[in-house]
C-alpha cells in the first residue's frame, strides 16, 4: 500500500483522510492567545473577549471558474485563497485571528501538490498572524476546490458596515486599481503563445507588478491601523473583490445614498496604463470592472479630510450624494455616466 | 436575458451571483441574539459572551463522493449538510448558534433545484435554532458541492474534548448504530433495480427507519441538556460520523488509553438486524464501520454510572483501560479482537 515507484508523487490515497490532514498541517503553529484548541477535535475552541465582537466570512474558490492551474502555481493559489477571506475581515474594520480550510481534490493531484497548496496557506497565515484551526480534506470527482472561513475580532461596536455612508461623505480608495485584472490578461496571452510555441520564453518583466497583483495579492492589513492612527473612523467600508463599480453600488444601495465618482481621480499604476494601451483596453473600464484588487473602499465624513489629505495610501475618488441623484461616473470630459455593476460575475463565466 | 420558456426551470445565470444569494436566503430569519449582523456585508458580526467560549467546525460534501443525487432529494441533502456540522458542535458539549453555507453548482441545476437545497438548509436551521449568517454561491465546472461552517457556544471551560478519557471510565453511546449505512445499502439496491426495470415500485416500508437515518439524519441536540439534567459531565466526547470503531480509536489515541468494547452491548435497531440478515452482512461490522449515525460517543467516570443507568437514550458499551492493553472488541464468544479504524474513508471511495 505504501509502495511508490516515483517518490516525488505520493498518491493521496496512501495517506487516508486523517493521515492527510495531520500531514499537511503538522508544521502549523498556534499563535493567537484566543485559540484554546486548534485542529484535532470535533471543533476548534476560541476564547471570547467581552470588549470585542467577532466577525466571520467565507469564500469558495473553484478550479476552472476562479483559477486556472496552467498558470497559477499551487503555492500562490493557497496564499490567495487565504487573502481573499482576510480582505473581507479587514473590510469590517476587524483583525483576522483564525481560519478553517477545506479542500476537495481529485486523485490527479499527488500529495506533493497539496503540500505546495498548504505551504501557501501557511505562508499567508504566518504573515497575517492567523491560526489555522480546522478544516476538511476530501476527494472530488474532478478538479480542485478550496473553501476558507475566516474569523476576526473588532472592538465592540467598532465594526464598519456597508450601510453607514451619509450624503457629502468622501469616497476613498486605498492603493491602485485594475492591476490584478491586467495581470490576468498578460498571463492568458502568455498561455496562448505557449500553446503555439512551447519553447517561447515569456518576458514578464514589464508586467511584473500586474502579474504579482494577480498571482500573489495582499490584503490591506495596514489600513485598520493607519485609520486608527489618523483617528479616522470610516462611515462605510467594503473591499474591492468584484471591481470598483459594483462595490460602490453595494455601498450606495446599503446606505441608501447616491455617489459621484471622478474618472480623473481613479488611482492607476503606470504599468496598468501602459498595458491597457498595449491591449487596446480602456483603463477606466478595467479599474471599474476588473476586480480582484483587494483594496479597501470607504467613506469618511468631510471633517476628516484634513487627516487623510496627502496620504500616499489613500485617494479621494468621489463623494456621496442624495439617493435621488443616483450613482454616476463623472468622466474626464465632464460627462455624467450612470455606473452599472459590471463587476466580474463568477456565475456568468461558465459556458 | 430574462426570457424563460419553461418557467419551472430558471437558469442560475439569470439571477447572477448577488441576486441568487439574496433570492435563496430571503426567507431566512435571525433568531440568535448574538447575531449582530447576518448576511449582507463583507462578514457577519457575532457578539461575545464573556462567560462563554466559541466552537467552530467545518465540513465539505461533494457530489459523487458523499452523496448521489439519483436517490438523495436536494431538500434532504441541504438538511443533512447542516446536521453533520451541528453534530460536531454537540460533540464539544456546545450549542450551535450560527452557520455559513457555501455552494458550488453547475449550470445543469436550475434555480428551483437550489431553492430545494436551501429549503432543507432552512428547515434544519429552524429546528436547531441556528442563524445562517453568510456564505458564497458560485458555479462549478461539474457537480454540486456544499461547504458549511458552524459556530457554537459553550460555557467557559466546559468544552469536552476527545482527550479526557481516563482508565476505568465507562464508554457510552447514544441511540443505536448502523442504521444509516443499511439505509444506504437499501437505496443503492433500489437504484440498481430501477435501472433494470424503471417501472418497479419499491416497497421501502420495511426499511423506513434505515432510509430515514440515511436521508434525514438528526444531530443529538437533546444530549447536552440531558447530561446537564443528570449532572453528568463526560470526560471525553466525539460524534459518530465515520463509524464506532474509528471514533473509539480517536478517543483512545487522544486520551492515551486503551478500551474494551463489548459486542453484545452495541445497540442495534431490529430493522438493522433484520436487514443485515437479508443482505448477508454482519451487524457488528456494520455498527463498527458503517458511519453516518451522528450519535454521540462519550466516556464518564464510574461514579456517574448510577445517574445514567437505565436511561433509554444511553447505552454503556465498554470501558477504558490502560493504554498498554490496547483497543479491543470482546466478542459474544468472549474472544478479544483488536479494533481497527475501518471507518468510511472519503478518500478511498474514489475510483
Ligand atoms: Mg466529529
Ligand atoms: Mg468583500
From TrEMBL, chains A, B:
Record-listed Mg(2+) 2 binding positions: 59, 88
Catalytic reactions on record: thiamine phosphate + ATP = thiamine diphosphate + ADP
EC number annotated for this UniProt entry: 2.7.4.16
Residues binding Mg(2+) 3: 42, 88, 239
Domain PurM-like N-terminal: 40-154
Alphabetical keyword list: ATP-binding, Kinase, Magnesium, Metal-binding, Nucleotide-binding, Thiamine biosynthesis, Transferase
Pathway(s) this gene product operates in, as recorded in its UniProt entry: Cofactor biosynthesis; thiamine diphosphate biosynthesis; thiamine diphosphate from thiamine phosphate: step 1/1
Record's keyword annotation contains Chaperone: no
Binding residues for ATP: 118, 135-136, 162, 241
Root EC class: transferase
Entry's Gene Ontology molecular function annotations: kinase activity
InterPro entries named in the record: PurM-like_C_sf, PurM-like_N, PurM-like_N_sf, ThiL-like
Record: residues binding substrate: 66, 292, 344
UniProt-annotated binding residues for Mg(2+) 5: 242
Residues annotated to bind Mg(2+) 4: 42, 57, 88
Pfam short name (any one): AIRS
Keyword Metal-binding: yes
Highest taxon listed in the record's lineage: Bacteria
Residue numbers binding Mg(2+) 1: 58-59, 136
SUPFAM superfamilies: PurM C-terminal domain-like, PurM N-terminal domain-like
Note: Reaction mechanism of ThiL seems to utilize a direct, inline transfer of the gamma-phosphate of ATP to TMP rather than a phosphorylated enzyme intermediate.
Family of the protein in this entry: Belongs to the thiamine-monophosphate kinase family.
Role noted for this protein: Catalyzes the ATP-dependent phosphorylation of thiamine-monophosphate (TMP) to form thiamine-pyrophosphate (TPP), the active form of vitamin B1.
Protein name: Thiamine-monophosphate kinase
Amino acid at each position: 500500500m505504501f509502495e511508490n515507484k516515483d517518490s516525488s508523487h505520493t498518491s493521496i490515497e496512501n495517506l487516508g483522510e486523517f493521515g492527510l490532514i495531520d500531514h499537511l498541517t503538522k508544521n502549523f503553529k498556534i499563535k493567537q492567545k484566543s485559540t484554546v484548541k486548534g485542529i484535532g477535535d470535533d471543533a476548534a475552541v476560541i476564547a471570547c473577549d467581552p470588549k470585542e465582537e467577532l466577525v466571520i466570512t467565507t469564500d469558495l474558490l473553484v478550479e476552472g471558474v476562479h483559477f486556472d492551474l496552467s498558470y497559477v502555481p499551487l503555492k500562490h493559489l493557497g496564499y490567495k485563497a487565504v487573502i481573499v477571506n482576510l480582505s473581507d475581515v479587514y473590510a469590517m474594520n476587524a483583525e483576522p485571528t483564525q481560519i478553517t480550510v477545506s479542500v476537495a481534490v481529485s486523485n490527479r493531484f499527488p500529495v506533493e501538490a497539496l503540500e505546495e497548496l498548504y505551504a501557501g496557506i501557511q505562508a499567508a497565515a504566518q504573515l497575517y498572524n492567523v491560526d489555522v484551526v480546522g478544516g476538511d480534506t476530501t476527494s472530488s470527482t474532478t478538479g480542485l476546490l478550496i473553501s476558507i472561513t475566516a474569523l476576526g475580532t473588532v472592538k465592540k461596536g467598532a465594526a464598519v458596515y456597508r450601510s453607514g455612508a451619509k450624503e457629502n461623505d468622501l469616497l476613498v480608495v486605498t492603493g491602485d486599481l485594475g492591476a490584478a485584472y491586467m495581470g490576468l490578461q498578460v498571463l492568458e496571452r502568455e498561455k496562448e503563445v505557449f500553446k503555439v510555441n512551447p519553447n517561447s520564453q515569456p518576458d514578464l518583466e514589464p508586467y511584473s507588478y500586474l502579474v504579482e497583483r494577480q498571482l500573489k495579492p495582499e490584503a490591506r492589513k495596514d489600513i485598520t491601523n493607519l485609520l486608527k492612527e489618523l483617528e479616522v473612523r470610516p462611515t462605510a467600508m467594503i473591499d474591492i473583490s468584484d471591481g470598483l463599480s459594483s462595490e460602490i453600488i453595494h455601498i450606495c444601495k446599503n446606505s441608501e445614498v447616491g455617489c459621484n465618482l471622478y474618472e480623473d481621480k481613479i488611482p492607476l499604476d503606470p504599468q496598468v496604463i501602459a498595458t491597457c494601451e498595449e491591449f487596446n483596453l480602456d483603463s477606466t473600464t478595467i479599474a471599474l470592472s476588473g476586480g480582484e484588487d483587494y483594496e479597501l473602499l470607504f467613506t469618511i465624513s468631510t471633517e476628516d479630510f484634513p487627516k487623510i489629505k496627502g496620504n500616499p495610501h489613500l485617494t479621494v475618488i468621489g463623494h456621496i450624494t442624495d439617493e435621488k441623484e443616483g450613482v454616476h461616473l463623472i468622466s474626464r470630459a465632464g460627462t455624467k455616466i450612470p455606473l452599472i455593476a459590471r463587476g466580474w460575475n463568477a456565475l456568468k463565466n461558465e459556458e
